[in-house]
Amino acid sequence: MHPRFPTTLATAISAVALALALGAPAAEAKKLTGSGRSDVFKGTPGSDVIEAKGGNDIIKSMAGDDTIYAGFGRDQARGGPGADDLFGQDGDDTLGGGGGNDYLDGGAGNDNIQGNAGNDELVGGDGSDSLNGGSGNDSLDGGPGADRLMGGTGDDVAHGGDGDDTIIGIDGNDTLYGEAGNDHLSGGPGADFLDLGDGDDIGDGGDGDDIIWMGAGNDSVTGDAGNDTLIPGDGFDDVYAEEGSNKIIATADAAVRSDFENFFCRFVNRDLGAGYLIYVGEIDQLEADAALKRGGCAKVVSVATMEEALALPYLPLNAQGNLDIDRARALGML
């Protein structure tokens, strides 16, 4: 008897032993049930259903497409080569997929979930969870709580859910959603799409041609290498870029500061409102089309260069039609 598991070795192993004693193949064992205490399970070559119930259980799936319910407690469950469904349920669980396309749901508690090989779906549930997709094109959902999501290799989709989440795409062309909370999103190599969602977020596109949507809140975004498209939302956003030809597309409610070397900004049919700022910073060239509306009449400012405006901390647009055009001319921008 193992000192960590003073109960019986679980109905799972008993079922296999009984099947072998009767001369039946182990693959015929289908339903395996725990004692409600701390059990050790080992599946069969068939497609099993394992219900561990209570206790701190250890569950190992074998061949076949298995379904595992870990139950209450701090459980450890690992899938096999088939397409397995693992449910951690209540407690701080550790779940690992195998070689197939697995579904792993941590349930309530602070769970650690690893997809491993295959195109897996990982769900954290309630609590502060850690999810890693591993290899393959995976789907990750942190759920409520401050979660850490890592896509791994492949083209992954990750949703942070509620809470202050950290989401890292790693390799591949990833799609990352911060959603509610003050989140930190990092795309890594590849052409990534980042939607920061609500909150004061940090976004890092990484290498590749990325698209970053900032959403509500005061966000800080770095495009990094590649030709990036950065879209501010509500709030006052800081935008930085390094190598590449970048563009920024702002809405009427956005306030933007940037230090792009190559910068593109477009405001189309928007009432920008008073106090709208475009930060100049270390721009070598600024190209912009701004439609400024006042009294139903739109005035368009087309900016070709910013050589004489580089010393200015910002260019204010007050939505006053010709006054803004005159200001641009006075700065040598037209």
Summarize the structure in words.
The protein is mainly beta and 334 residues long. The chain has a domain at 1-40. Helix content is 6%, strand content 35%. The chain has two helices and 31 strands. It has helices spanning 10-21, 322-330; strands spanning 31-33, 40-42, 49-51, 58-60, 67-69, 76-78, 85-87, 94-96, 103-105, 112-114, 121-123, 130-132, 139-141, 148-150, 157-159, 166-168, 175-177, 184-186, 193-195, 202-204, 211-213, 220-222, 229-231, 235-240, 247-249, 254-258, 262-270, 276-279, 285-294, 297-303, 314-317. The strands form three sheets. A 16-stranded mixed β-sheet has the order 1-3-5-7-9-11-13-15-17-19-21-23-25-27-29-30. A 13-stranded parallel β-sheet has the order 2-4-6-8-10-12-14-16-18-20-22-24-26. A hairpin with a 2-residue loop joins strand 29 and strand 30 (297-303). The N and C termini lie far apart (85 Å). 48% of the residues are buried.
